[in-house]
């Protein structure tokens, strides 16, 4: 068996890997709560002044935002808690339940809006003080837009589905308000009062579409969908860079769990390596992977490269590591002949 060469030692200390712990994001949930309370007050005032069912439907959607923000606060607090004897892997997936709950709440709000719009279409009413009411709506929309951008940026930075869901919902609310603004303005100009009911109906349909999207995303997370292509590519590049005549990899799997990212892979190393050497190799690889994909939890399973049993546990579904699918999967003898040397 060829004696593996020891990787050259770097004279500079390695850059420390980022922390794997979940970040406390509850301050963003409180921001969403305060924003929802303010916009409900503004939109309710606009509805009271004008009597527009379109504005009332917009205020109802902001009520959904408030309930969703409270649910998000609870979910983020639960997700930030560490592992316990009962929840040994932590509670990062609590965020997916928040997104699912928000989707369900959206459906209820949409149903109420659709019923109200149908009633107003059958019994149209004239609008009052439209100009002042629309100015109040503009103020509420600006507030919602600013908070939506803050939440989505924080959610993507920290990989929080709860914050992204809240931000998307608020942004949808902004566009809904723009539609209501234009529609109610047209009602005032044309005098066709049933248009107010049509606008409210369209708001309800738009809310249903948003709810379907949120439910779909939360279900994918609960079913352990793989990491995105960017993260998977970063992982496979590192594994290929560590491949040599003596070290290969197979069985790569990845998944998301709220803010956390997980992967597991099998490492085939020379039989002559000591446990200490294999552990050191795996530890250094773990640190490199985490620097490339912050927040990654890597489970690295070390196996002897010449043992046929090392190739009996390859999963049926895995992320391809090599262009040549035989590398890391063939018999030890053929592997020794075909695996290219390290670059």
UniProtKB/TrEMBL annotation:
The chain crosses the membrane at residues 28-50, 62-84, 96-118, 130-152, 173-192, 198-215. PANTHER family: MITOCHONDRIAL METAL TRANSPORTER 1-RELATED. It is found in: Membrane. Residues 30-223 form the Cation efflux protein transmembrane domain. It comes from the Bacteria. Residues 227-304 form the Cation efflux protein cytoplasmic domain. Residues 1-19 have a biased composition (Low complexity). Residues 1-20, 307-343 are annotated as: Disordered. Belongs to the cation diffusion facilitator (CDF) transporter (TC 2.A.4) family. InterPro entries: Cation_efflux (IPR002524), Cation_efflux_CTD (IPR027470), Cation_efflux_CTD_sf (IPR036837), Cation_efflux_TM (IPR058533), Cation_efflux_TMD_sf (IPR027469), CDF_Transporter (IPR050291). This is Cation diffusion facilitator family transporter. GO terms for molecular function: cadmium ion transmembrane transporter activity; ferrous iron transmembrane transporter activity; zinc efflux antiporter activity. It is a multi-pass membrane protein. Residues 331-343 have a biased composition (Basic and acidic residues). One of its GO terms (cellular component) is plasma membrane. One of its GO terms (biological process) is intracellular zinc ion homeostasis. Keywords: Membrane, Transmembrane, Transmembrane helix, Transport. Pfam families: Cation_efflux, ZT_dimer.
């Amino acid at each position: 068996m060829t004696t593996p060469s020891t990787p050259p030692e770097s004279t500079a200390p390695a850059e420390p890997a980022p922390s794997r712990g979940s970040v406390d994001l509850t301050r963003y949930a409180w921001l969403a709560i305060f924003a929802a309370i303010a916009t409900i007050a503004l939109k309710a005032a606009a509805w009271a002044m004008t009597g527009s069912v379109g504005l009332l439907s917009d205020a109802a959607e902001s009520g959904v935002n408030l309930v969703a923000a409270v649910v998000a606060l609870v979910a983020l607090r639960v997700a930030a808690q560490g592992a316990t004897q009962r929840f040994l892997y932590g509670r990062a997936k609590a965020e997916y339940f928040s997104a699912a709950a928000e989707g369900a709440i959206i459906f209820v709000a949409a149903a109420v809006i659709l019923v109200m719009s149908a009633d107003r279409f059958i019994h149209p009413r004239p609008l009052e003080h439209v100009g002042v009411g629309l100015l109040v709506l503009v103020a509420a929309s600006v507030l919602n837009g600013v908070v939506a951008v803050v939440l989505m940026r924080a959610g993507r930075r920290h990989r929080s589905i709860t914050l992204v869901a809240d931000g998307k919902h608020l942004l949808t609310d902004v566009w809904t308000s723009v539609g209501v603004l234009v529609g109610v303005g047209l009602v005032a100009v044309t005098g066709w009062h049933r248009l107010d009911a049509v606008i409210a109906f369209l708001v309800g349909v738009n809310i249903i579409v948003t709810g379907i999207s949120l439910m779909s995303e939360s279900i994918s997370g609960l079913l352990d969908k793989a990491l995105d292509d960017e993260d998977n590519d970063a992982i496979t590049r590192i594994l290929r860079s560590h491949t040599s005549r003596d070290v290969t990899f197979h069985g790569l799997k990845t998944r998301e769990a709220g803010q956390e990212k997980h992967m597991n892979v099998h490492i085939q190393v020379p039989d002559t390596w000591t446990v200490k050497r294999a552990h050191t190799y795996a530890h250094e690889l773990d640190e490199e992977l985490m620097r490339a994909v912050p927040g990654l939890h890597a489970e690295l399973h070390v196996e002897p490269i010449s043992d046929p049993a090392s190739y009996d546990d390859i999963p049926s579904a895995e992320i391809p590591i090599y262009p040549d699918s035989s590398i890391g999967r063939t018999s030890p003898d053929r592997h020794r002949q075909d695996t290219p040397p390290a670059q």
